[in-house]
Write a structure and sequence with these properties.
Radius of gyration: 22 Å
Order of helices and strands: EEHH
Strand content: 5-15%
Helix content: 55-70%
Length: 95
């Protein structure tokens, strides 16, 4: 699969990217989401420059990432325990 050359605009800056075609929709959606969050922050808070807005957006996304990782870790632990219990039951019945 050949790389695709696309242009996205984030925070009033244009970026040219070479990506695989299956990433295009995800990247465009992410850029749109970033720009929407920047607009929300610019309408809600006093800011000095675009870097202030970008910093707040990055912080928000980082917090959400940490929350998702924590939830995923918890889910992994729960499923790991359940799979161990199933394995034990199966082992007990096959012996």
């Amino acid at each position: 699969m050949e790389n695709l050359s696309i242009t996205v605009k984030i925070a009033e800056r244009t970026f040219r990217l070479k990506i695989s075609p299956d990433e295009e929709e995800r990247i465009r959606t992410a850029a749109k989401l970033i720009n929407e969050k920047i607009k929300d922050y610019s309408n809600s808070y006093a800011y000095h420059d675009m870097q202030d807005l970008l910093s707040m957006v990055v912080l928000q996304f980082a917090v959400k990432t940490v929350q998702c990782e924590e939830k995923l870790s918890t889910v992994d632990d729960v499923w790991g325990e359940r799979l161990e219990a199933i394995d034990k039951v199966l082992s007990d019945h096959t012996q």
